[in-house]
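Before the break, one more example. Copy the sequence into your notebook; we will annotate it together after we see the structure.
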Amino acid sequence: MPEAAHALELCRAQSRSVAEIAAAIEQPVLVTKTLLSDLIDAGAVIIEMPAVRPDLGTGRPSPHLLRALLEGLEAHDFAVA
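Here is what the structure looks like once it is written out:
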């Protein structure tokens, strides 16, 4: 399947979100999740834990994570209100 091969290639290059992979292979997110699930079951893809976890007391994202997100959006010239 060409989409699976392309998704696998994207995953090997660097960590990516499901949304990024879906956009790159031009498939809906739900189709991409199923495809990635099959790749995970086959042992071709491994899921990494997030580098920054939410605050255990509040369940909310940490200020560090929010700051990193804001910096990433600003670096890509997205409009930030």
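The two ends are 41 Å apart (CA to CA). The first helix runs from residue 2 to 13. Try to locate both features in your own notes.
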